[in-house]
Amino acid sequence: MDTWRLFSSCKKRVVVTRMPRIMVEWFAKEHLRADEVIGTELIVNGFGFVTGLIREPDIDQSVLSRVGDLFVDQRPHLGIGRPAKMISKTFLSLCQEQIHAPVHGNHSDQQLELQPPKPVIFHDGRFVKRPTPATALLILLWMPFGIILAAIRICILYVLPFWAIPYVIGISGIRVTVKGKPPRLSATRNSGLLFVCNHKTFIDGIVLSYALGRKITSHSVDFRNRDIDAGKIKEVLSKGDVAIFPEGASFNEPFLLRFNALFAELTDEIVPVAMNGGTGLTVDSNAGFFRAKTRGWTCLNVFFFMNPTLVYEVTFLDQLPLEESCSSGKSLYDVANYVQRILADTLGFECTNSTRKDKYKLLT
Prior knowledge:
Elements: H1 2-8, E1 14-20, H2 21-31, E2 36-40, E3 42-44, E4 50-54, H3 59-71, E5 78-81, E6 97-100, H4 133-159, H5 165-168, E7 174-179, E8 194-197, H6 204-212, E9 217-220, H7 226-237, E10 242-245, E11 255-256, E12 270-278, H8 302-305, E13 310-316, H9 332-347, E14 350-351, H10 356-363
Parallel strand pairs: 1-2, 5-6, 7-13, 8-10, 8-12, 9-10, 11-14
Antiparallel strand pairs: 3-4, 12-13
């Protein structure tokens, strides 16, 4: 944050990188509020495809020249960069003052009320780790084993009968921790319970069934016709328990999309369930290689199954009290916002007003 505070205090902010400009520009301008981005340019072939090769034979000299051309008759006041063996070949040599990041302490003389960086909520990256040469080599070596492991997991979760899954799921490296008290089946209820869950990955429904010890129907809220879809879910709910994902889309980051409020009118017997899935030894770690898909072909979900370990944490909260339901006079949106908030508090996530449409609009 000290580095950000110093960077934000400048009137004109320029981000300089050896990476391809097109991969950095949107993030730097949207989230870091940069005015300009200087980076390398990718070669595009005659068919309009990016080759992956860069145009500049000498990256450092090219970047240095473009920084000089940008400022022309004046030197940049301040340059922040990683320590380099030869400062003369980097953009830092053009700056009046040079500071090596990370910055410790506020070096700025300006006392400004600065806004924090805009958080990254949506992204389409499937890599968990930065693909450095060593990590890239490790991923390539793991790929053959990962493909075999993915095939085993797909067979366990989608081919085997449900009763057999608890006996073999552990050997595939999938671990599920259940917190809270899962509600039992009750013969006295006239309809099933509605489990309202945040949507972490595409296997949330299977993991929830495993945690409950019984198979239940799952619905991701993507309603084209509200009345018809509500009628279908009510019909299923009259026969048994139903899990619903009001976000409408799975989400990798520690945020919750705005909940579709339709679930609040379906029943008053609502059980919030916090779902958290990770690829390491704990749900908060990033020890794996790949994320679940955020858009695109469903078959790309196979990459998520190729992680060495998959860890899930399912937390059952208390059934929603009647005073917090629509029966007490609360609106659908009040109920939806309340459920979103208690799930976010349980997970340590942040609520947003963004919808699934906002997500796909940004990622396409």
